[in-house]
Specification:
Layout lengths: L3 E5 L4 H17 L2 E8 L5 H18 L4 E8 L2 H11 L4 E5 L11 H9 L5 E4 L11 E5 L9 H12 L2 E6 L5 H20 L3 E6 L6 H11 L4 E5 L12 H8 L7 E4 L15
Parallel strand pairs: 1-2, 1-4, 2-3, 4-5, 6-7, 6-9, 7-8, 9-10
Antiparallel strand pairs: 5-10
């Protein structure tokens, strides 16, 4: 079964980075690519369709072994990206974000709002293109929330496409009960990835180290191609950091792409997110 990937574009360079990632993913995953643009009113549709023809040319300059379509939607980015993704049964959305300003001000906080309004996973990129070998090294923060385990379902699927190594990053715990619980989560994650035949390593934050900085440090150390986070904005991700964590990750200083997953109502299932 062919999957569909969606790229919202604002015709900027960062959107073209998202298209480059999407094309490489489509060719690897045998997926269809849909590029969409959102306009404020119907008068802009014709002009947008003309610009999308150029976006198609850009997409085809990155590769050709995939099906390609374009969509123009009258509406707003916060509602219609997720709506279109649902309508076309997209399995993944790849979106560019600007560090300070850009398309309808899609900064870290605005990107997070778009992500929260959709149940579909996002890969959020800045300026870093996908390299030829794909996502070789994936950094995955792992904490005490049961929902964060759900990341591993998608990560293991992605890892199979690129023979990736997963680097688990955990906070430092001094409390004996929390430390034991965290160790149990680490053991579970390693066992899960081993069962999925995915290579992995564990990095425990140093005592007193800010976890966000530790994640970025590990990402820099392993030259990560992707950081995966769980969007638990309503439940305060990583315990106390709330949306500041997600925003910091989406606009991280390394400009490493971020796979952002919204939680499901159940824990990791036996199924897969992407069809191989």
């Amino acid at each position: 079964m062919q999957t569909t990937l969606l790229v919202p574009t604002d015709f900027t360079k960062v959107a073209h980075t998202a298209i480059q990632h999407a094309v490489k993913l489509c060719e690897t995953m045998n997926s269809k690519l849909v590029i969409m643009h959102i306009v404020k009113d119907g008068e802009d549709v014709k002009k947008a369709n003309s610009k999308l023809e150029k976006e198609k040319e850009i997409a085809l300059s990155y590769g050709s072994d995939f099906e390609l379509e374009t969509i123009v939607r009258v509406g707003n980015i916060f509602e219609d990206i997720g709506q279109v993704a649902s309508e076309i049964s997209a399995s993944l959305i790849i979106m560019g974000t600007h560090g300070a300003s850009g398309w309808q001000k899609v900064t870290g906080s605005h990107a997070l709002k778009v992500i929260t309004n959709s149940s579909i996973p996002f890969i959020v990129v800045q300026k870093q293109n996908m390299k030829h070998s794909g996502y070789d090294d994936i950094v995955v923060p792992l904490d005490l929330h049961k929902e964060t385990k759900q990341k591993l379902e998608i990560v293991s699927d992605m890892a199979h496409y690129f023979d990736s190594k997963v680097h688990l990053v955990t906070p430092y715990e001094t409390d004996k009960f929390l430390k034991n619980k965290l160790n149990a989560n680490i053991a579970w994650a390693r066992k899960y990835l081993t069962r999925k035949k995915v290579k992995s390593s564990v990095h425990i934050a140093k005592k007193g180290t800010n976890l966000i900085k530790e994640i970025i440090s590990v990402a820099a150390e392993v030259d990560a191609d992707l950081i995966t986070i769980m969007n638990l904005q309503k439940n305060s991700l990583m315990g106390m950091m709330g949306s500041h964590y997600e925003q910091s990750m989406l606009t991280n200083e390394l400009q490493t792409p971020v796979l952002c997953v919204n939680p499901k109502t159940t824990t990791v299932s036996s199924g897969t997110v992407f069809t191989r």
